[in-house]
Amino acid sequence: MKEKVAVLYACPNFTANATKFIDVISSQPDVRLAVVSQEFMALLPLHIQQRLAGFRQVSDVFQPDVLTQAALSLQKELGDPLHRIMGAVEALQWAIAVVRERMGIPGMRPETILNFRDKQRMKDLFRRAGIPCARSCKVTTRQQAHEFAASCNYAVVVKPPDGAGSLTTFRVSNPAELDEALQQMPSREVMLEEFILGQEHAFDTFSLEGKPLYHSISCYYPNPLEVMREAWIQWQVVTPFEVDSPQYDDIRALAFRALEVLGMQTGVSHLEWFRRPDGSIAISEVAARPPGAQFMTLAGRAADFDAIQAWARLVIFGEFTVPRRQYAVGAAYLRGQGKGRVKAVSGLDIVEREIGHLITDFKIPSIGQEAKGHYEGEGYIIVRHPDTGIVRQALSRIVSVVRVHVG
After folding, report:
1. Given strand 336-337, what is the order of strands in its sheet?
2. 338 against 282, higher pLDDT
3. Could you tell me the CATH superfamily of domain 199-406?
């Protein structure tokens, strides 16, 4: 057995996603895992607490100086140099990269991470490399915003330059909507991007030292911004069985080129892209971290492997066994209809009776939990089958009969 190596995992909170990642990494027999978070260790399940080799609670995990101090303290406590520092939260990637550089820990450096975090910088790199993407502009004044929006006939998306997950992201179609969106931005610096008509997709890649090893493609039904604009829509995501077919050759070439241009090294990346009605492609943006919204589960279920464990082994040890794709998979996100707390969930008995044999994973909204108003909703149901059409039909049936009642 390999000698155990010291690894640090950083996260702001112990969300379900963070807890799952910590659980998987801490269970590796050749890893001594330490954790830095803004929350109490007691909020982690007891079996995970017992596996941790070290823990630090900090005031602000996003501050490089705070994270560096915690990392140095844990390294001293563990008695071994930190082999890797990792995390899955988008906004944390730059601070993690700064700590790597300061402490000489392998992994992507701040200058490379900025290519992923600063969306205007990313688009500039794409344009210089001839990679198709939406027109965009970083602005600091209302006048600049309106000038760019007018050049796009006010069909634009407004978001923070370093945003993620469609948070504080708005599609606007007139000057009044633009002014309203600008008022909700968290900082003076704002990113405006041409609104692209077309089907939105994701392209998730496992890479080792800049070489793509395995990828997964997912289709959004409908696009997340549309889901956010229409409270009644329950989002669906499908990973088709046909990912390796020639119909995706064009995005494969562009996605791998985009990762090369941005400097992706070792890890999992999440790229979002559009297929326009005329068949052409536009790359939206790329994140140098594992995706959320159960996309790692979808990738794993499609090829019967533990995608989170694969990410951990890839980043920590440079190990990756390429899996064989066997299924189409999909997720229906159970979204509360209205504002308030979950009062009831109906239609689950119908789903269980009709398509229960297709279900691999689920999270049913808990009575009393608050509706988030996000496209991911309050829960999900994941299905799989070798036939993509059957997966699509199953998801359509789920969203047509399951209702999350809130009030």
Report:
1. 336-337, 403-406, 342-346
2. 282
3. ATP-grasp fold, B domain (3.30.470.20)
